[in-house]
Amino acid sequence: MILRIEKGSAVPISSQIFQQIAMLCASGRLKPGERLPSVRELARELAVNQNTILRVYERLVRDELLEMRHGQGTFVAAHADTTGLAAHRTRLIEELRQWASQGLALGLEAEGLHELMDEALRQLQSSATTEKTKKEVS
Amino acid sequence: MGVPAIELQAVDKSFRKNRVLRGTTFQVEAGCTFAFLGRNGAGKTAAIRMLMGLLSCDDGVIRVLGLDPQVDPIGVRSRVGYLAEDQTMYGWMRCEEILRFMAPFYATWDHQLALRYARDFEVPLQEKIKHLSKGQNVRLGLVLALAHRPELVILDDPALGLDSIMRKQFNRDLITHLQGEGRTVFYSFHLLYEVEPVADEVAILDQGRIVRQSETEALRSDVKQIVLSREAAVAVGETASVLQRREEGRELALVVDKAQVVIDHLRREGVEHRVVDLNLDEIFEAYVTGTNEAEPPEVAATQRIAGEA
Known about the structure:
The structure holds 2 protein chains of 2 kinds.
Chain A: H1 13-26, H2 39-46, H3 50-62, E1 66-69, E2 73-76, H4 80-105, H5 110-137
Antiparallel strand pairs in A: 1-2
Helix pairs in contact in A: 1-3, 1-4, 2-3
Chain B: E1 6-15, E2 18-28, E3 33-38, H1 44-51, E4 59-64, H2 73-79, E5 80-83, H3 95-102, H4 111-120, H5 134-146, E6 152-156, H6 164-179, E7 184-188, H7 192-195, E8 201-206, E9 209-215, H8 216-222, E10 224-229, E11 241-248, E12 251-257, H9 259-269, E13 274-277, H10 280-288, H11 297-301
Parallel strand pairs in B: 3-7, 3-8, 5-6, 6-7
Antiparallel strand pairs in B: 1-2, 1-4, 8-9, 10-12, 10-13, 11-12
């Protein structure tokens, strides 16, 4: 599990770790049943307070992304991928809401916002195709 | 709860007419990693020297591991690891000599650990102390402070001589060797972004007073910047403890404590506003700027903005 902590960020350390693990669960890079590093190990690895890591793990357990098995450690919960997706939905809506309110403040209307979203998707898809062609060529 | 590791109650200290501590009160629970923040000259070093019994207070109560450092400085010394801000050591000794020299002063000295720290912190053991760089000097001081496995570690700005790689290594050691073993760490630090991942709790000392003591995470969620139009600022009214205000054209940026109360209030009133998350540096700045000598921080911290907008 590779996590990255950005120091001095306006996003609190615990949220950074929480979001990254939730993302790994949702994308399936952490598979249900997989064992996570212990609180101690992860704290040392990231040079982050053990209590912070423990609180993040506990929150992920509450959100049913992880489960703690007594005496065995912390594991990715069954169905963490679908649960994770649901959790991300809420977060993405929140981010889109902020993005939309910026757009509205700039004088864009609903239609203009949709166009921007479509454009962004188009750019993503075209860069994905270029990547693919590059790979095929090489 | 057992005996707190550190306790200051209404401590006053003046150097002639200069009052460095004014009714300073705070408590550090055992097992906690506690960051003591403040600008240069805020009184941090004076407070730390009092904890070690190197300085007496004019008024108030100081307890370290339940002991009065004025009455039992040796008792405090044997159980506390201390790194002074400007630690001076015998310049003619070699590093390796001072390690052996210090060992018999402590019943719990662990020489293997001392040598391991010396290696980790890249202290040149064969070098004479007077030839060390400032950074090496601090690191040697750290080795001396930690090698007797103290239950409480008091460090006056240990980051001073460490580069970013060593700071990370130091943070790791702090987490595994000190936090992991349930020991208490009390340290002053000037790099706030290094404090955040490590400290359970922080206290901000400004002009001799603790203006805020809080769990690190709670501080982040309590203090936010709210941006709104100057006309709308009236709506904030009495709900806010404003720490810092900045005007920029038609807009007003307020850094407020207990931000959720203000945000809920603005939502209810239907006032348009933006909430900005702040990092620890910005929060610190909001607390220590804008308060001035004549004004006690209690007043400054709850400055009302009603009618000003």
